[in-house]
Amino acid sequence: MKSLIWIQALLVPAFGITSQTPLVQDEPTLSDFTVHQSSVSPDHSIRIKRQNASLCNTPVDQYTGWLDVGAKHLFFWYFKAEKPPPSDTASEPLALWLTGGPGGSSMLGMLQELGPCLINAHGNGTVYNEYGWNKETALLFVDQPAGVGFSYLDEGEPVPGDSFTTAADVHLFLQMFVSQVFPEHGDGPLVITGESYAVFVPLSRKDIISSAGARIVSQNALHPNQPQVPLKSLAIGNGYVSPLDTAYGYWETLCTTNPGVEAPVFNSTRCDIMAANLPRCMDVSRTCYEHPDPAICQAASAVCWFGVIEFYDGESYAGGRNRFDITAPCDIDNYCYANTALIQKYLNLNSTFSALAVPKALTHFSVGSDAVMNAFGATNDLEISLMPQLTYLLASQIDVLIYQGNLDLACNTAGAKRWTSNMAWKGQAEFTSRDLKPWMSGGEVAGMSKEVNVQMVEGDEKRTRFAFVTIDGSGHMVPQDQPAVALDMLDRWLAGKAFD
Ligand SMILES: *[C@@H]1O[C@H](CO)[C@@H](O)[C@H](O)[C@H]1NC(C)=O
Ligand SMILES: *[C@@H]1O[C@H](CO)[C@@H](O)[C@H](O)[C@H]1NC(C)=O
Ligand SMILES: *[C@@H]1O[C@H](CO)[C@@H](O)[C@H](O)[C@H]1NC(C)=O
Ligand SMILES: *[C@@H]1O[C@H](CO)[C@@H](O)[C@H](O)[C@H]1NC(C)=O
């Protein structure tokens, strides 16, 4: 189990906030909600309720609700864009945000980073976010799989072990959402965005097309007569794509000034030990990539933990080191940021539960689910490479943006430079032949970038964009640490503008 701890710390909070039992009223009357039945699947329906600025402080229209699939209920929160679309006929863009984990609630990203409103300093309300990501696009947050955040299972139902089912649910949810509930998004474009592990969840590595993105692409192709989910791109922030390269990047992040620090974090004694241990960590990790048996992958994780990772991550806790920003303190265990506890407090208020009309089956909101994390931990899902998922999407002409806060260690830029260069696909040679160049935001150098635009399908002129962008002075949570730069980056990506 030890071998899993570093991932566990990375992805799932486990702190025990004193849980106040919220006032749970009788089942909310369905009249509060509008119910939409899927035109494609008899098992899927969406119940949706309008909210107002007293819940999340923003001038735009907002709605919350659940996708109901039998005993599973997936929670969502949806916001309109601040700017109306250019003309009455144009389809409105939509961005889906998924927080990492597995097992982390998307409410974290919403209220701590990029939502239209952010948690206030007391944890009893929200403040308008000037840099919310819904300036040019509508924004949708989903808690998944069931068992995470406000998503729940009927009593007695087991936590989903097979995440493939969840990918199918997310696809059906989006299909209904853009065709029946908000048809103004019917032609998209849709961008799926998130952090760490997020964009790949739900996922089961048993099957290459098991992430939500890949599921969408394959279902669109399989059922051309059904409503299509207009997925155009992925924007992945500090993604947990290649554990091997992330471990390798620990040395550069901690033993050089490359992340943008004045002096290396570690002294040469520690750096020498890590350097000596790295070749074996790489060797066993490569074996896991080639033979992804859980026993081999968990061994790889253990070798890398004890030889490399533990020196820093073993000292990460309240008052210790922060894995998400090598220059920042760690205020609370696991997630390090005090805001996380405030979010949990706010979402557990009686007034919040009653506005959302949370049903009896859910008595407490938690920002992270241990049960879901453990279900993933029992597989090899956390140690293997996700590059095959990305190459599948690129081959399907889905644009991919990889953005990286440079002060992050957990999913470090040094490792991301390595895997983006090593990923085998048609654009690889051109991508590696290019140099990173500074990109400007607000009149200042924001970081480095490079990109390629590659024709992926013979006979089809369409070019698929693969961009790599770094952000200086930012840790893992880029919209939290560099809000103006992060919004500028997103809007450029949505508009198809170059970074240099
Ligand atoms: C919330 O509801 C519970 C249960 O009814 C009650 O004990 C508690 O005082 C309420 N809290 C607030 C802040 O109103
Ligand atoms: C939040 O708490 C602060 C400090 O206790 C208080 O001044 C403020 O009125 C509270 N706001 C709400 C909306 O309850
Ligand atoms: C190097 O850092 C470690 C951990 O902070 C410390 O225990 C050790 O004494 C340091 N060594 C030197 C030579 O400063
Ligand atoms: C906003 O919604 C809450 C319930 O969620 C309600 O009590 C309040 O009256 C609403 N405010 C406005 C201005 O509609």
TrEMBL record:
Biological processes per GO annotation: proteolysis
Keywords: Carboxypeptidase, Glycoprotein, Hydrolase, Protease, Signal
Stretches assigned to coiled coil: none
Keyword Endoplasmic reticulum recorded: no
GO-annotated cellular components: fungal-type vacuole
Keyword Signal: yes
A Pfam family the protein falls into: Peptidase_S10
Signal peptide residue numbers: 1-19
Single Gene Ontology MF annotation: serine-type carboxypeptidase activity
Domain of life: Eukaryota
Protein family membership: Belongs to the peptidase S10 family.
Stated name of the protein: Carboxypeptidase Y-like protein
